[in-house]
Amino acid sequence: MRVRSSYFKVTNMQAEVAFWKALLEQEPTKTSPNWTEFVIAGQRIGFLLNDFGEELVGCSCVPVLEVDDEAIEATVTRAKTAGATVILDGLGNPKMNSIVMASPSGHEFELCNCKAHE
Fold first, then answer.
1. Would you say residue 69 lies in a domain?
2. pLDDT of residue 63
3. Are 62 and 100 in contact (CB under 8 A)?
4. 34, 51 in Cβ contact below 8 A?
5. Is residue 21 a part of any domain in this protein?
6. Nearest-CA neighbor of 112 among 77, 61, 76, 84?
């Protein structure tokens, strides 16, 4: 068994894709009106347009993106510039070494420099 992909249900595909393009500094590998997908280090992360009337409450998927220690500050800045907000900043905490953020539509993601502190 393996993880094929992870995906978020979104209500505004354009806004969500614009945010992730800015954060990841890459174009999506697949796009359609209802589905967009990025590949990050061989892993797929997708966005499904919620055009079926489901009420979305909270965030139920939190991808953890590992960032090299020397790039974490620039990545956090890029996320904030693209519209992310900080949920929990544990970058200065040696037990956490990560920051949990949310995209403009409220989807959470975590940036970590965990490898540098293993």
1. yes
2. 86
3. yes
4. yes
5. yes
6. 76
The CATH number given to whatever domain includes residue 103 is 3.10.180.10
CB 69 within 8 A of CB 50: no
* pLDDT of 60 strictly over 80: no
Q: How many domains does the chain have?
A: 1
Residue range 67-74: average pLDDT?
90
Q: What single DSSP character describes residue 91?
A: T
Assigned domain for 29 exists: yes
Model confidence at 118, pLDDT cuts 50, 70, 90, reads low
Q: What is the pLDDT of residues 30-54, one digit of tens each?
A: 999 999 999 998 999 999 888 777 7
C-alpha–C-alpha distance, residues 83 and 15, integer Å: 10
Under 8 Å between Cβ of 65 and 118: no
State the residue for tokens 């909270």.
58
